[in-house]
Amino acid sequence: MGTSIGIFSNRSWLLIWITIMLSIFILTISTIALIYMLVQLVKAKQQGKFLQTLRDLLIITLAILMTFAIFYIGYRVLRAF
Q1: What is the pTM of this model?
Q2: Which pLDDT tens digit goes with each residue over 27-59?
Q3: Does 2 fall in a domain?
Protein backbone atom coordinates (compact mmCIF):
# COMPACT_ATOMS: atom_id res chain seq x y z
CA MET A 1 0.00 0.00 0.00
CA GLY A 2 1.12 3.57 -0.62
CA THR A 3 1.10 6.36 1.83
CA SER A 4 -1.81 8.74 1.62
CA ILE A 5 -1.23 12.33 0.67
CA GLY A 6 -4.17 14.42 1.72
CA ILE A 7 -7.34 12.55 0.89
CA PHE A 8 -6.01 10.74 -2.18
CA SER A 9 -3.67 7.78 -2.31
CA ASN A 10 -1.15 7.18 -5.07
CA ARG A 11 -3.47 4.61 -6.69
CA SER A 12 -6.33 7.08 -6.96
CA TRP A 13 -4.06 9.62 -8.67
CA LEU A 14 -3.06 6.91 -11.14
CA LEU A 15 -6.71 6.14 -11.83
CA ILE A 16 -7.47 9.83 -12.35
CA TRP A 17 -4.49 10.16 -14.71
CA ILE A 18 -5.56 7.09 -16.73
CA THR A 19 -9.11 8.43 -16.99
CA ILE A 20 -7.89 11.81 -18.22
CA MET A 21 -5.54 10.23 -20.76
CA LEU A 22 -8.32 7.97 -22.04
CA SER A 23 -10.62 10.96 -22.43
CA ILE A 24 -7.94 12.89 -24.33
CA PHE A 25 -7.34 9.89 -26.59
CA ILE A 26 -11.05 9.55 -27.37
CA LEU A 27 -11.34 13.28 -28.01
CA THR A 28 -8.36 13.21 -30.39
CA ILE A 29 -9.66 10.23 -32.38
CA SER A 30 -13.15 11.74 -32.54
CA THR A 31 -11.78 15.06 -33.79
CA ILE A 32 -9.77 13.31 -36.50
CA ALA A 33 -12.86 11.35 -37.55
CA LEU A 34 -14.97 14.51 -37.74
CA ILE A 35 -12.35 16.34 -39.80
CA TYR A 36 -12.07 13.36 -42.14
CA MET A 37 -15.86 13.20 -42.51
CA LEU A 38 -16.07 16.93 -43.24
CA VAL A 39 -13.46 16.54 -45.99
CA GLN A 40 -15.42 13.58 -47.38
CA LEU A 41 -18.60 15.66 -47.21
CA VAL A 42 -17.04 18.34 -49.39
CA LYS A 43 -15.81 15.71 -51.88
CA ALA A 44 -19.20 13.98 -51.90
CA LYS A 45 -20.99 17.22 -52.66
CA GLN A 46 -18.95 17.48 -55.83
CA GLN A 47 -19.78 13.85 -56.74
CA GLY A 48 -23.50 14.01 -55.90
CA LYS A 49 -23.36 11.73 -52.83
CA PHE A 50 -24.02 14.54 -50.37
CA LEU A 51 -26.94 12.98 -48.48
CA GLN A 52 -25.18 9.64 -47.88
CA THR A 53 -22.10 11.36 -46.52
CA LEU A 54 -24.18 13.71 -44.39
CA ARG A 55 -25.94 10.68 -42.91
CA ASP A 56 -22.58 9.10 -42.07
CA LEU A 57 -21.42 12.32 -40.42
CA LEU A 58 -24.55 12.46 -38.29
CA ILE A 59 -24.06 8.83 -37.23
CA ILE A 60 -20.50 9.59 -36.11
CA THR A 61 -21.69 12.66 -34.21
CA LEU A 62 -24.36 10.59 -32.49
CA ALA A 63 -21.76 7.97 -31.55
CA ILE A 64 -19.54 10.66 -30.02
CA LEU A 65 -22.46 12.05 -28.03
CA MET A 66 -23.38 8.57 -26.81
CA THR A 67 -19.77 7.97 -25.74
CA PHE A 68 -19.80 11.21 -23.78
CA ALA A 69 -23.12 10.26 -22.16
CA ILE A 70 -21.81 6.81 -21.15
CA PHE A 71 -18.69 8.33 -19.57
CA TYR A 72 -20.77 10.94 -17.77
CA ILE A 73 -23.17 8.33 -16.38
CA GLY A 74 -20.21 6.17 -15.32
CA TYR A 75 -18.62 9.15 -13.62
CA ARG A 76 -21.82 9.93 -11.74
CA VAL A 77 -22.22 6.29 -10.66
CA LEU A 78 -18.60 6.02 -9.46
CA ARG A 79 -18.89 9.33 -7.68
CA ALA A 80 -21.99 8.13 -5.81
CA PHE A 81 -20.05 5.20 -4.33
Answers
A1: 0.51
A2: 888 888 878 878 887 887 788 777 887 788 788
A3: no
